[in-house]
Amino acid sequence: MRVLGIDPGLTRCGIGVVEGQVGRPLTLVDVNVLRTSSDEPVWRRLVTIEKGIDAWLDEFNPDAVAIERVFARSDVSTVMGTAQASGIAMVCAARRGLAVALHTPSEVKAAVSGSGRADKAQVGAMVTRILRLDAPPKPADAADALALAITHIWRGGAQARIDAALAAAGSRHARPVRSTP
Amino acid sequence: MRVLGIDPGLTRCGIGVVEGQVGRPLTLVDVNVLRTSSDEPVWRRLVTIEKGIDAWLDEFNPDAVAIERVFARSDVSTVMGTAQASGIAMVCAARRGLAVALHTPSEVKAAVSGSGRADKAQVGAMVTRILRLDAPPKPADAADALALAITHIWRGGAQARIDAALAAAGSRHARPVRSTP
Fold first, then answer.
1. CATH code of the domain containing A85
2. In this structure, is residue A25 part of a structural domain?
3. Which residues of chain A neighbour B90 with C-beta distances below 8 Å?
């Protein structure tokens, strides 16, 4: 399974691809950060992010896209841009028919480090170990994108089967993983 | 000048087109509300909104798109979806090269009613009068979308010339109307 992870942001949007399956070593495919300038109007920045994500989806053809779930209680000065970037990321994936999953920061920290309260350095260190890298990916947004992809692979299997079963049953209450905004 | 106004929202996204110029009677071209179900995952709802806005842009070919500026201090339970819908609206317009402008609720209320504290009913009544309609557009999201378009036409002329001059001067500090997120 190949998963594209996105840590959404207007100034720095982490993006990374991880391949593997539960119980087997995971492999880093590629990782980077999409950057936009605060000198640009927000709509131009969002179009740049859309083009960047589309280019990654074209190049790496992932099976699923894992995006950090953004909360309204986050830092007020950046939360609107982060929410908008996450919306663009979701649309880029969903209009191709790709599976989309939102994972909270706590879920990601717990999945990769065993603690929902791990700090950035711990997450970076665990991503480095899990993917057998020489050094933690920089900046933290890049490591976070990989941590999201790892989380999705590790959590995704069981949940994806449950969602598929619910969807097949046509339940009005069927909801994909963390679908609420 | 033909302006498409968008009152962004995940459950109800107001959308309306107004034609005219400062000092002349304005005309309603069309107005409606794009709706998505909270039973759907957020990414599917955002794709539905994207398709709806694209269809309106295709049909009405506006000169500019005016979108309500969303604030982080808005109602927490809906603000993330509203921010995401506004991001999609901006991208739909910007990737076609259309002028995008964000107007705050206070600016819109002040433009159409003379008071930045006007209530929904007052805005609806003024939109009805300005566009010479038989009754206020319903629901309020539809009236708000038209109020945004009216605001843009009335404020837009002077500001657009200033922005164009700044852009032409290549100023690092040139910023379109209300560009900050």
1. 3.30.420.10
2. yes
3. 42-43, 46, 84
| Domain assignment of residue A178, yes or no | no
Give the CA distances from residue A106 to residues A128, A137, A138, A150, B93, in Å, rounded to whole numbers and listed in that order: 19, 20, 20, 14, 35
- Does A162 map to a domain? yes
Total domain count, chain A: 1
Tell me which residue has tokens 């603000």: B79
Cβ separation of A90 and B172 shorter than 8 Å?
A: no
Q: Give the Cα separation of A50 and B96 in Å (integer).
A: 13
In a domain, B179, yes or no: no
Contact A10 B42 (CB under 8 A): no
pLDDT in tens, B108-167: 999 999 888 899 999 999 999 999 999 999 999 999 999 999 999 998 655 655 565 666
Which residues of chain B approach chain A closer than 8 Å at the C-beta? 10, 39, 41-44, 46-47, 50, 70-73, 76-77, 79-81, 83-88, 90-91, 93-95, 100, 102, 172, 175-176, 179-181
Please, which residues have CB within 8 angstroms of residue B176's CB and are 6 or more apart in sequence? A41, B99, B100, B101, B163
Kindly report the number of other CB atoms within 10 A of residue A110's CB atom.
Answer: 17
Q: Is the dihedral of CA A51, B96, B170, A77 positive or negative?
A: negative
Give residue A113's domain range: 2-173
* ipTM value: 0.83
pLDDT band at A155 (very low <50, low <70, confident <90, very high): confident
